[in-house]
Amino acid sequence: MTVDGEAFALEGRDGVFAAVTDFVYAPRDARVEVASEAGGRFALPSARAGNRLDPRHVPADDVEVELRGAGQASRQINNFCGPDATIADRLIAVEALTPAGNWSSYPPHKHDEDVPGVETALEEIYYYEVARGGFGFQRVYTSGPGRAIDVTAEVRSGDAIVMPHGYHGPSMAAPGYDLYYLNVMAGPGERAWRFTDDPDHAWIRDTWSEQELDPRLPLTAAPRRTTR
Questions:
Q1: Among 88-92, 149-153, 172-176, 184-188, which range has the highest average pLDDT?
Q2: Domains in the chain: how many in total?
Q3: Which CATH number is 164's domain given?
Q4: Could you give the CA distance from residue 67 to residue 59 in angstroms, rounded to a whole number?
Q5: Of 188, 177, 217, 208, nearest in space to 77 by CA
Q6: CA 208, 226, 199, 171 torsion: positive or negative?
Q7: What range does the domain containing 210 cover?
Q8: Could you say which DSSP state residue 14 is in?
Q9: 14, 49, 54, 165 - which has most CB atoms within 10 Å?
Protein backbone atom coordinates (compact mmCIF):
# COMPACT_ATOMS: atom_id res chain seq x y z
CA MET A 1 0.00 0.00 0.00
CA THR A 2 1.29 3.48 -0.84
CA VAL A 3 0.07 6.75 0.66
CA ASP A 4 1.27 9.80 -1.29
CA GLY A 5 4.15 7.68 -2.56
CA GLU A 6 5.19 6.33 0.86
CA ALA A 7 5.14 2.52 0.80
CA PHE A 8 3.80 0.26 3.55
CA ALA A 9 3.89 -3.56 3.50
CA LEU A 10 0.89 -5.18 5.20
CA GLU A 11 0.88 -8.76 6.47
CA GLY A 12 -2.91 -9.17 6.42
CA ARG A 13 -4.59 -12.41 7.52
CA ASP A 14 -6.45 -15.40 6.11
CA GLY A 15 -9.82 -14.14 7.35
CA VAL A 16 -11.52 -12.08 10.04
CA PHE A 17 -11.82 -15.08 12.39
CA ALA A 18 -8.18 -16.15 11.89
CA ALA A 19 -6.21 -13.30 13.48
CA VAL A 20 -5.96 -9.62 14.29
CA THR A 21 -4.61 -7.73 11.29
CA ASP A 22 -2.20 -4.86 10.85
CA PHE A 23 -3.47 -1.74 9.09
CA VAL A 24 -2.53 1.58 7.54
CA TYR A 25 -4.09 4.96 8.32
CA ALA A 26 -4.27 7.35 5.36
CA PRO A 27 -5.04 11.05 6.00
CA ARG A 28 -7.45 13.27 4.12
CA ASP A 29 -6.53 14.38 0.58
CA ALA A 30 -4.00 11.55 0.25
CA ARG A 31 -3.48 9.48 -2.88
CA VAL A 32 -3.74 5.82 -1.90
CA GLU A 33 -2.83 2.76 -3.96
CA VAL A 34 -3.38 -0.85 -2.91
CA ALA A 35 -1.80 -3.81 -4.69
CA SER A 36 -1.44 -7.52 -3.97
CA GLU A 37 0.04 -10.20 -6.24
CA ALA A 38 -2.22 -12.84 -4.67
CA GLY A 39 -5.34 -10.65 -4.63
CA GLY A 40 -7.35 -10.20 -1.47
CA ARG A 41 -10.23 -8.48 0.27
CA PHE A 42 -9.78 -5.03 1.75
CA ALA A 43 -11.78 -2.96 4.23
CA LEU A 44 -11.61 0.79 3.62
CA PRO A 45 -13.57 2.58 6.37
CA SER A 46 -13.50 6.36 6.00
CA ALA A 47 -14.96 9.58 7.36
CA ARG A 48 -14.86 13.29 6.59
CA ALA A 49 -11.93 14.88 8.38
CA GLY A 50 -10.92 18.43 9.28
CA ASN A 51 -7.25 17.92 10.08
CA ARG A 52 -4.64 16.21 7.95
CA LEU A 53 -2.62 13.81 10.07
CA ASP A 54 0.40 11.70 9.17
CA PRO A 55 0.01 8.32 7.49
CA ARG A 56 0.87 5.44 9.78
CA HIS A 57 1.28 1.68 9.68
CA VAL A 58 0.27 -0.17 12.87
CA PRO A 59 1.35 -3.82 13.22
CA ALA A 60 -1.11 -6.41 14.48
CA ASP A 61 0.86 -6.89 17.71
CA ASP A 62 0.14 -3.26 18.63
CA VAL A 63 -3.64 -3.54 18.19
CA GLU A 64 -5.36 -3.56 21.57
CA VAL A 65 -7.62 -6.59 22.03
CA GLU A 66 -10.35 -6.03 24.61
CA LEU A 67 -12.82 -8.50 26.09
CA ARG A 68 -16.18 -7.01 27.06
CA GLY A 69 -19.27 -8.15 28.87
CA ALA A 70 -19.69 -11.51 30.62
CA GLY A 71 -21.61 -14.74 30.22
CA GLN A 72 -23.61 -14.80 26.99
CA ALA A 73 -22.89 -11.11 26.48
CA SER A 74 -19.13 -11.80 26.20
CA ARG A 75 -17.40 -10.54 23.06
CA GLN A 76 -14.00 -9.50 21.71
CA ILE A 77 -13.17 -6.00 20.45
CA ASN A 78 -10.13 -5.32 18.27
CA ASN A 79 -9.51 -1.62 18.92
CA PHE A 80 -7.38 -0.86 15.89
CA CYS A 81 -8.82 2.64 15.50
CA GLY A 82 -10.86 3.07 18.67
CA PRO A 83 -11.62 6.40 20.33
CA ASP A 84 -8.43 6.21 22.42
CA ALA A 85 -6.23 5.89 19.33
CA THR A 86 -4.66 9.20 18.32
CA ILE A 87 -3.96 8.30 14.70
CA ALA A 88 -7.30 9.52 13.26
CA ASP A 89 -9.03 12.90 13.12
CA ARG A 90 -12.71 11.85 13.02
CA LEU A 91 -12.87 8.15 12.23
CA ILE A 92 -13.64 5.52 14.88
CA ALA A 93 -13.38 1.92 13.69
CA VAL A 94 -13.13 -1.35 15.60
CA GLU A 95 -13.84 -5.03 15.00
CA ALA A 96 -16.27 -7.03 17.17
CA LEU A 97 -16.21 -10.82 17.34
CA THR A 98 -19.06 -12.62 19.08
CA PRO A 99 -18.87 -16.35 19.88
CA ALA A 100 -21.72 -18.52 18.58
CA GLY A 101 -24.85 -18.14 20.70
CA ASN A 102 -23.75 -14.88 22.34
CA TRP A 103 -25.05 -11.32 22.04
CA SER A 104 -22.96 -8.21 21.50
CA SER A 105 -23.79 -4.50 21.21
CA TYR A 106 -25.68 -5.16 24.42
CA PRO A 107 -27.39 -3.68 26.41
CA PRO A 108 -28.96 -1.74 23.54
CA HIS A 109 -27.60 1.78 23.35
CA LYS A 110 -27.50 4.86 21.15
CA HIS A 111 -25.20 7.75 20.22
CA ASP A 112 -27.86 10.40 19.58
CA GLU A 113 -28.29 14.14 20.12
CA ASP A 114 -29.60 13.88 23.69
CA VAL A 115 -26.40 12.31 25.05
CA PRO A 116 -24.77 14.90 27.35
CA GLY A 117 -21.71 16.54 25.79
CA VAL A 118 -22.36 15.31 22.24
CA GLU A 119 -22.71 18.02 19.59
CA THR A 120 -24.73 15.89 17.13
CA ALA A 121 -25.43 12.24 16.48
CA LEU A 122 -22.69 9.89 15.39
CA GLU A 123 -23.59 7.81 12.36
CA GLU A 124 -22.64 4.18 12.69
CA ILE A 125 -22.16 1.36 10.18
CA TYR A 126 -21.85 -2.39 10.85
CA TYR A 127 -20.38 -4.67 8.18
CA TYR A 128 -20.84 -8.38 8.92
CA GLU A 129 -19.07 -11.68 8.37
CA VAL A 130 -20.52 -14.93 9.73
CA ALA A 131 -18.44 -18.08 10.21
CA ARG A 132 -19.18 -21.27 8.26
CA GLY A 133 -21.72 -19.60 5.98
CA GLY A 134 -24.12 -19.01 8.84
CA PHE A 135 -26.35 -16.14 9.87
CA GLY A 136 -27.04 -13.74 12.73
CA PHE A 137 -29.55 -11.06 13.65
CA GLN A 138 -29.38 -7.33 14.33
CA ARG A 139 -31.98 -5.18 16.06
CA VAL A 140 -32.29 -1.40 15.48
CA TYR A 141 -35.07 0.64 17.06
CA THR A 142 -36.06 4.12 18.13
CA SER A 143 -39.16 6.16 18.84
CA GLY A 144 -40.29 9.72 18.45
CA PRO A 145 -42.44 11.88 16.17
CA GLY A 146 -41.90 10.96 12.54
CA ARG A 147 -39.15 8.38 13.04
CA ALA A 148 -40.44 5.43 15.04
CA ILE A 149 -38.84 2.18 13.91
CA ASP A 150 -38.25 -1.30 15.26
CA VAL A 151 -36.44 -3.71 12.95
CA THR A 152 -34.78 -7.05 13.59
CA ALA A 153 -32.99 -8.24 10.46
CA GLU A 154 -31.13 -11.39 9.49
CA VAL A 155 -27.50 -10.69 8.56
CA ARG A 156 -25.04 -12.80 6.60
CA SER A 157 -21.49 -12.33 5.34
CA GLY A 158 -21.28 -9.20 3.20
CA ASP A 159 -24.32 -7.47 4.71
CA ALA A 160 -24.11 -3.96 6.18
CA ILE A 161 -26.49 -1.85 8.26
CA VAL A 162 -26.40 1.96 8.60
CA MET A 163 -27.58 3.35 11.94
CA PRO A 164 -27.82 7.16 11.82
CA HIS A 165 -29.80 7.40 15.08
CA GLY A 166 -31.69 5.38 17.65
CA TYR A 167 -30.97 2.36 19.79
CA HIS A 168 -29.17 -0.63 18.34
CA GLY A 169 -28.55 -4.04 19.79
CA PRO A 170 -28.29 -6.76 20.35
CA SER A 171 -26.17 -8.20 17.56
CA MET A 172 -27.05 -11.88 17.86
CA ALA A 173 -24.76 -14.73 16.86
CA ALA A 174 -26.84 -17.82 16.11
CA PRO A 175 -25.75 -21.05 17.83
CA GLY A 176 -23.05 -22.69 15.74
CA TYR A 177 -21.96 -19.50 13.98
CA ASP A 178 -19.43 -16.98 15.30
CA LEU A 179 -20.33 -13.41 14.27
CA TYR A 180 -17.97 -10.62 13.17
CA TYR A 181 -18.72 -7.02 12.37
CA LEU A 182 -16.59 -4.06 11.41
CA ASN A 183 -17.96 -1.14 13.42
CA VAL A 184 -17.39 2.28 11.79
CA MET A 185 -18.52 5.53 13.41
CA ALA A 186 -17.98 9.24 12.82
CA GLY A 187 -19.62 12.62 13.24
CA PRO A 188 -18.88 16.35 13.22
CA GLY A 189 -18.51 16.65 17.00
CA GLU A 190 -15.89 15.43 19.44
CA ARG A 191 -14.19 12.15 18.50
CA ALA A 192 -15.56 10.25 21.48
CA TRP A 193 -17.48 7.01 21.86
CA ARG A 194 -20.23 8.31 24.13
CA PHE A 195 -23.35 6.19 24.50
CA THR A 196 -26.59 5.92 26.43
CA ASP A 197 -28.03 2.53 27.36
CA ASP A 198 -31.72 1.92 26.83
CA PRO A 199 -32.97 2.62 30.38
CA ASP A 200 -35.26 -0.42 30.23
CA HIS A 201 -32.26 -2.72 29.86
CA ALA A 202 -29.35 -0.83 31.45
CA TRP A 203 -29.55 -2.99 34.60
CA ILE A 204 -28.08 -5.92 32.67
CA ARG A 205 -24.63 -4.30 32.68
CA ASP A 206 -24.57 -4.53 36.50
CA THR A 207 -24.98 -8.32 36.40
CA TRP A 208 -21.67 -8.89 34.60
CA SER A 209 -19.67 -8.63 37.83
CA GLU A 210 -21.35 -11.87 38.94
CA GLN A 211 -20.58 -13.78 35.74
CA GLU A 212 -17.44 -15.14 34.10
CA LEU A 213 -16.23 -14.21 30.63
CA ASP A 214 -16.97 -16.78 27.95
CA PRO A 215 -13.96 -19.17 28.00
CA ARG A 216 -13.97 -19.30 24.19
CA LEU A 217 -12.57 -15.78 24.16
CA PRO A 218 -10.38 -14.46 22.75
CA LEU A 219 -11.26 -15.93 19.37
CA THR A 220 -8.18 -14.67 17.53
CA ALA A 221 -5.46 -13.36 19.87
CA ALA A 222 -4.46 -12.97 23.49
CA PRO A 223 -6.14 -9.93 25.07
CA ARG A 224 -4.20 -6.90 26.21
CA ARG A 225 -6.99 -5.60 28.45
CA THR A 226 -10.21 -6.97 29.85
CA THR A 227 -13.12 -4.69 30.76
CA ARG A 228 -16.79 -5.16 31.53
A1: 172-176
A2: 1
A3: 2.60.120.10
A4: 20
A5: 217
A6: negative
A7: 59-226
A8: S
A9: 165
